[in-house]
Model the fold of this input.
Amino acid sequence: MSIQITSANDITRVELRGHSYAADELREAIWLSNMELRNGLPKRERIEAQQQLAEMEIALEALVAVEGERR
Done:
């Protein structure tokens, strides 16, 4: 997994799995993934969702760190 962080018009975004997220969008995606996990998924989908969730959390940490440095 590679994380690419870009900034344009004072908005910092992170590229993850072909999608571009701002911090708030990434937090919402994490919340939605957690909801899917709580509602139950088949084993294979659950494993994939857990992997995506871990990647999103790492990306969010990196994004927040970069935003903190730029302030």
Q: What stands out?
A: Residues 43-70 form the longest helix (28 residues). Helices lie at 23-39, 43-70.
